[in-house]
Amino acid sequence: MGKKTPEINSSSTADMAFLLLCFFMMTTTMDQDKGLQRRLPPMPDPNQKAEDQKVNRRNIIVVKINSADRLFAGTEPMDVSQLKDKIKEFLSNPANDPSLPEREEKEIEGFGPCMVSKGVISLQNDRGTSYQAYIAVQNELVKAVNELRDEFAIANFGQIYMKCDEDQQKIIREAVPQNISEAEPKDVSKK
Amino acid sequence: MSKFKNKEKRTVPQPPSGSLSDIVFMLLFFFMVTTTMRETESKVMVRLPEASEIAKLERKDLTSYINIGTPIRSLQGQFGNDSRIQLNDSFKTVDEIRDFIAAERDAMSEADRSFMTVAIKADENTRMGIVTDVKQELRKCSALKIMYTARKGE
Hints:
The complex is a heterodimer. In chain A, the strands form two sheets. Chain A has a five-stranded mixed beta sheet, with helices on one face. In chain A, strands 5-6 form a two-stranded antiparallel ribbon. Chain A has helices at residues 13-27, 80-92, 131-157, 166-175, and strands spanning 34-39, 60-65, 71-73, 76-78, 103-108, 112-117, 120-125, 180-182. By secondary structure, chain A is an alpha/beta fold. Chain B is an alpha/beta fold. In chain B, 34% of the residues lie in helices and 23% in strands. Chain B is built from five helices and nine strands. Chain B has helices at 2-9, 20-34, 73-79, 97-106, 128-140; strands at residues 44-45, 50-51, 55-56, 63-71, 84-87, 90-92, 117-122, 145-149, 151-152. In chain B, the strands form two sheets. In chain B, strands 1, 4, 5, 6, 7 and 8 form a six-stranded mixed beta sheet that branches. In chain B, strands 2-9 form a two-stranded parallel sheet. In chain B, strand 7 (117-122), helix 5 and strand 8 (145-149) form a beta-alpha-beta unit. The mean pLDDT of chain B is 80. Chains A and B meet through helix 1, strand 1 and helix 3 of A and helix 2, strand 2, strand 3, strand 7 and helix 5 of B.
């Protein structure tokens, strides 16, 4: 043992760390991406003849948005704020109205028989529709389904959908399906 | 005068600064772990539409982004101010989405491919025409899980 190695001056490590810290603080992006998740329908097989999807008329509600962002749901024009209640009424059909979608008894695993609505929401838009209006409508549709799910969850499990456990959520999703079909784009006006 | 001198000597003791670097390092690691480097430079102006029923994106690493919007100011002279699609780092046409999706898919492991999500980040003033084209193209390359990125509103 000859010379003792001199101790490295450590008073500047804090400075260096601060510098790095500042760099990462500046570059960091904490925002998480959030949005509306959707599943697109698969492309129809070209070899297969387009079979007539005979969906009973009462089971479909058509929501149209035109190029001026006006909304048309079912048989009447309406405002976005009214859409949610309309969809809820359409999907739940509390009074078994023959003009609203039929409900089918379905055996759900782990829950038992349950009346499931066969309603499908068909969303159509024009090429000139603004994205904002489209998202607003999508949002209302999801909101309607979510509220129905919450109602179902409270009635059967005593808590809202988000608080239910995985299995319960699966049951709820089956009992209150989210059937939103984004129709094939239609060439309304070809320019 | 000695009275004053005595007072000057009685200084507040320095707080121990030995653990300062530890604290800073801890913060540093926190930020290093949470940080996600912005890989691509945004070339389009995107103001996300508002929505209230939004869900979080689960796997960020399995997500590909498609930005749609008007080019940023400095590029407007070159590209005009019509809505454009940005993939990775450059403007692309709708037809090039196919290659983009294929490349993104190749970069993922076999098991993860079915969970691939495409996040559409479109400006709120975009017309649906271009979004519909993108959606159709995505259907063609069977990238069916999509997400309309939105910001929390209301």
